[in-house]
């Protein structure tokens, strides 16, 4: 007597459990997982290349009818003395500084500090934007209010003789 046992099929491959979308669903999930891995790896590489320097977000408002262009940087929790605004003659405006944690967060003893949620970033930041070459410090206005640094400069720069010079520091109002 011959005994035959049925071949067990994987439930995902069983004809009664498949639809036309199932084979593509698993492929889609695999590709999505790989994409997330690549994006996270890219972010880690970029952060490592920047030396851990944060880049504050910026909005640049360039209204054609206005004589000025305004850049607004997010710098919450900082005083104007903690922010540097520098200009080079080749048309680069850089803001930089260091966001320090408040004194009550400065204690890093693991037995003392518990962070159920920790999303605020502290440390060095820097952001450089292009401005018209030949722009002078006297033409730039910078002010800080409510964690927003506003820097304005004239749209049209007089055709002055461009020369390479040291970085100039801009004072804030």
From TrEMBL:
- Positions of the SHSP domain: 49-173
Q: Where is this region: Disordered?
A: 1-21
Q: Which UniProt keywords apply?
A: Stress response
On the tree of life, the source organism's domain of life is Eukaryota
Q: Give the record's family classification.
A: Belongs to the small heat shock protein (HSP20) family.
Supply the name of the protein: HSP20-like chaperone
Q: Which organism is it from?
A: Russula ochroleuca
């Amino acid at each position: 007597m011959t005994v035959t046992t049925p071949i067990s099929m994987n439930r995902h491959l069983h004809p009664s459990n498949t639809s036309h979308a199932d084979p593509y669903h698993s492929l889609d999930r695999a590709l999505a997982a790989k994409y997330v891995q690549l994006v996270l790896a890219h972010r880690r590489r970029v952060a490592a290349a920047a030396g851990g320097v944060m880049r504050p977000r910026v909005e640049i408002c360039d209204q054609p009818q206005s004589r000025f262009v305004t850049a607004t940087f997010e710098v919450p929790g900082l005083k104007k003395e903690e922010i540097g605004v520098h200009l080079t003659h080749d048309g680069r405006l850089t803001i930089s500084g260091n966001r320090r944690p408040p004194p009550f967060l400065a204690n890093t003893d693991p037995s003392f500090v518990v962070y159920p949620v920790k999303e605020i970033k502290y440390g060095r930041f820097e952001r450089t934007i292009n401005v018209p070459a030949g722009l002078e410090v006297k033409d730039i206005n910078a002010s800080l209010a409510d964690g927003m640094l506003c820097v304005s400069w004239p749209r049209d720069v007089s055709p002055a003789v461009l020369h390479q010079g040291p970085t100039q520091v801009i004072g804030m109002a």
